[in-house]
Specification:
Elements lengths: L7 E4 L5 H14 L11 H5 L8 E5 L5 E9 L9 E8 L8 H15 L4 E7 L3 H9 L3 E12 L2 E11 L6
Parallel strand pairs: 4-5
Antiparallel strand pairs: 1-2, 2-3, 3-4, 5-7, 6-7
Length: about 170
C-alpha cells in the first residue's frame, strides 16, 4: 500500500496558521534549514496571507497539517514580480517519506498557475536532504553565498537554487 495515498494538498487557510507556526518553529529549533532564530506565533503566520504569498499545505486523511511549502516576495522591484522565494518545511516525525516532494510539486503547480516564471531559494550547504529533493524536482544549484549570515554565532554558507517554470517563459 502506498503510504501517500491518504495525503492531500490544498491551499492553506488562516485556520492553518497554528499548525504552520508549529512546523516552522520546529525547523527554526533544528538549525538546519533557516537563519531565523525567533519562533513565530500564529499571528505572525497570518501576515503571510497576502497577495505575495502562495501557501500549500499537505494534510493527512485526518486533516492534520504535516508540511507546508510557501512563496514570498523575491524583490520589491516590479521587474521581479514573476520570481518568488520559496520554503518547504515538514514536521520532524514525517521527514524522509517524500512529503516534502509532494508539497513542493503542489507549490510549483500553484506558482505556475499564478504566473511565476522562477522559484529561488538558498539551502545550507550541508543540508543534503533538501539539496537532493530540489535536484529531483529540477532545481539547479547556481552558486554559493559564502558566509551569508551567522547562525548561533557561526558563519554559514548557502547554495543558491533556482527553477524556471517553462510554461510561463515565452
Amino acid at each position: 500500500m502506498n503510504p501517500h495515498t491518504s495525503l492531500k494538498t490544498r491551499d492553506a487557510t488562516v485556520e492553518d496558521a497554528v499548525a504552520i507556526a508549529a512546523i516552522y518553529n520546529q525547523g527554526i529549533a533544528a538549525r538546519t534549514a533557516t537563519f531565523e532564530t525567533r519562533e513565530r506565533s500564529a499571528v505572525d503566520i497570518l501576515q503571510w496571507f497576502d497577495s505575495r504569498h502562495l501557501i500549500v499545505v499537505v494534510c493527512t486523511a485526518e486533516g492534520r497539517v504535516i508540511a507546508f511549502a510557501s512563496t514570498s516576495s523575491y524583490r520589491t522591484r516590479a521587474c521581479y514580480d514573476g520570481v518568488a522565494d520559496f520554503s518547504v518545511y515538514v514536521a520532524p516525525e514525517q521527514r524522509g517519506q517524500g512529503i516534502g516532494q509532494i508539497a513542493m510539486e503542489a507549490l510549483i503547480k500553484a506558482a505556475e498557475g499564478a504566473g511565476f516564471w522562477k522559484l529561488v531559494s538558498r539551502v545550507f550547504v550541508e543540508n543534503q536532504a533538501s539539496r537532493a529533493l530540489l535536484q529531483r524536482l529540477g532545481f539547479r544549484e547556481v552558486g554559493v553565498y559564502e558566509k551569508h549570515a551567522r547562525l548561533d554565532g557561526k558563519w554559514r554558507d548557502v547554495i543558491i537554487v533556482e527553477r524556471l517554470i517553462s510554461a510561463n517563459i515565452t
